[in-house]
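Hi there,

I know you've been waiting on this one. I reran it after we fixed the sequence typo, so this is the corrected version. Both the input and the resulting structure follow.
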Amino acid sequence: MLTRTGLGACSTTLAYQQPLIVFARPLWPGGRGLTCPPRTRFVAGARCAGSAHTGRGAVGASTEPQRVPAPRPAPGMEAGDGKEETPLSSALSRFQLSEDYGFLLPNPLTELPAPYGPWMEIARELPQLIASHRLRSRVHQMPQLSTRHLRGCEELYLAHLVLSFITMGYLWQEGEEGTVKVLPRHLAVPFWEVSQALGLPPILSHADFVLANWRRKDPSGPLEIENLDPIISLPGGESLRGFILVTFLVEKAAVPGIKAIPQAIHAIRQLDEETLHQALQGLATAIGAMGKALQRMHDYVDPAVFYAVIRIFLSGWKDNPAMPDGLVYEGVSEEPMAFSGGSAAQSTVLHAFDELLGIRHSQESTAFLHRMRDYMPPPHRAFIEEIGRAPSLKQHVLCSGDARLRVAFNRCVAELADFRSCHIAIVTKYIAVAKAKAGRAEVGGWAGRPPAALEAKGTGGSHIFSFLKSVRDTTRDGLISA
């Protein structure tokens, strides 16, 4: 049983003693926050920025990450890094966001320190090890490594990425008919500790798969798909690469819209209708760009490979008939735990836009979306919650009687509904149509069989088509009538 406190991390610091310029009030009562300077050595009992680490490992431990306050500033955004802090960057950095990358982790590390070489060696060979059915034996031979040598949040995020990919490969190496019930101690314990330090669940999530899983081929080159690669991969070849990187480009396209949120809230507080109009125009343009980026999925991802090979490795052990009892994390808890698989609903972007625009989804959809927030980095989740505490944009537009604002607001809502329609079309092609044509698909020596347990569900556990259509339709309901 895991009884020690596990990872330490970043120092506790007083923050938020002055009102945030953009939101015009302290972010949390009492003005206390956590900060994580990069590459700071961990000390026992401390926590990484905004983490939920409690050192719990007893039987019956919670299987969902805890909601916790967000830290400031983000790695690479501290005073003294040579970049002048503006009111906008100050507002974003408090939630580990940047003006350049939004929710993406800026320039993630690609190598862990030398003591973690055994993890990196396995992670680099995952597609080959899975294809040859050797991954499980390699994991069984893996040494028990202490997490105490990890330094700073950047190394923590890479460790979580590496361990989450190894875990998914270990679980699904033999398909849904060859799952295991126990994750070995020397993988489960460090994965649990790193997860607790970050406030993330011990499973592959969108934060790992996309936000922290990218690198430039040419460090000085552009953020274009030809100059990008994932840091860690799984079976799926070029289609998996395309799936990760197209999703990355959607996140990157959202950045101007993310920056428009604090600008819009500040404008509402200042009764500055011109700035508010500009912010809404910027938000609508960003959502439109996200839709164009998403369309590139057709160019880079083969539907047969996605359906028969990639999809199972994103699957979780909650609401999944292939693993009805969940998974025992050996050395952490004697009872099995259940976590949802990776899902687009774990991206903070659309949650933030919904919150700003006052979009209200059905009770069932809202419950699922709120559960997916537990799979986001705590600072990103706190960003959504802070938007929800701000003055209502929709009410402001209604009360203003300003026709230009109403048109700009409706354009944002319409673009958001169109984006969700585009997502439905892609899911139809890559799941429904692919299912009708389903057979075995082979990539890089790994022969995939379509996962029967997920035929009507997304990898996050939702009833995917009814969910996506519901949130699209309730988005349209958010339009303001003339």
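Quick highlight: The radius of gyration is 22 Å.

Best,
R. S.
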